[in-house]
Design goal:
alpha+beta; six-stranded antiparallel sheet; 4 helices; 6 strands; 32% strand
Length: 165
Amino acid sequence: MPVTPPTTDEVRELARPEQFRIPPDWEDENGHVNVQFYQALYERGGRPLMESLGMDDAYFSERRLGVFDLEHHISYFSEIHVGETVSVYTRLLDRTDKRFHGIVFIVNDSRDLLACTLEFVASGADLEARRSAPYPDDVAAALDRIIAEHRKLSWDAPVCGVMSA
């Protein structure tokens, strides 16, 4: 059974890498943000964390290493509308030599509501072989550091219960 979602104050204990204002072209026929753009927020909002782990442009282009997403579980809690401002937070939960497990929180800052969680499992990748690969030592150490920091939080991550690294 999933854990109750955290409050926005609890989520804000995590570092906020990015804040976005929702553009008009993200609105769907229902008058709110189309589901495809939650994935865009996940991708754009997660980039600063990935860079802090050492997964920057050089990681991809020079080291020829990357990340493949393997699994997602999205839970929607409140709508996001055009013109509203949202923040994207990421909590890392666990890792193996080739995978890491985390959850992204999209907070609607305009209304102070948790809009969405996106739980994920991602794999290290060898971009030449196009296959999963272990994380190099520097990235593994950075993952371990952030996972240890996030484990100190006083609240449980609202995981679906079937995903793991």
